[in-house]
Design a protein that fits this description.
By secondary structure, the chain is α/β, with parallel strands linked by helices. It contains 6 helices and 7 strands. The protein has one domain. The protein is 38% helix and 20% strand. 25% of the residues are buried.
């Protein structure tokens, strides 16, 4: 697939993922990289920036806080491809974004999601969101950037989602979802 085809497929993946996430009613996606790259870009502790594919909120019901910032990386893949190596870079970037927020005194317990249509690194799949895997992804970092407290805290804020085409068919349509949100916002009974 050429660069243009990959770009089209990537864009389609972002909007399919946005639709699916919002249909769960647990996520509100406010920006995509295609709407506003500036709104999905985070500064990193090593001085770089990272543009994620989407930014929004995770609406929680776990007693912590009602809404946590969420940044999503989308991989609209039909094969494993290079996802294993890309995921390692993603873990580094998530860590460095959270580290930068801590340095700046604005750690909002930001959550990060990797959403794909094809699983990868199956030999270590159950460990991909663990301290062990995060620590492994950080081996190339300057030691001054490594914060053990953050390494222990960040895995609880990582999401790894494999979406199938059939799951997408189960989503609530925009009209019904909008009506439910309107009712909930207005405080009406269902």
């Amino acid at each position: 697939m050429g660069a243009e085809g990959a770009h089209i497929k990537g864009r389609e993946g972002v909007f399919m993922a946005k639709s699916w996430l919002e249909s769960t009613t647990r996520f509100q996606i406010h920006f995509t990289v295609y709407d506003s790259e500036a709104q999905v870009t985070l500064p990193l502790a090593d001085g770089r920036t990272k543009a994620f594919d989407m930014r929004g909120l995770h609406i929680q019901d776990d007693g912590r806080t009602n809404r946590c910032p969420l940044y999503v990386e989308v991989k609209n893949c039909d094969t494993e491809g290079g996802q294993g190596q890309q995921y390692e870079q993603y873990l580094r970037d998530c860590y460095l974004a959270a580290a930068k927020q801590r340095q700046d005194g604005v750690d909002q317990e930001t959550e990060f999601m990797w959403l794909t249509w094809h699983p990868f690194s199956l030999g270590k799949w159950s460990r991909l969101c663990t301290e062990e895997e995060l620590r492994s992804a950080l081996t190339s970092l300057d030691e001054a950037l490594v914060d053990e407290d953050l390494i222990r805290a960040l895995p609880a804020r990582l999401w790894l989602v494999v979406l199938s085409r059939r799951q997408q068919e189960m989503t609530m349509g925009d009209r019904l979802l909008g009506e439910i949100r309107r009712i909930l916002t207005a405080g009406e009974a269902l």
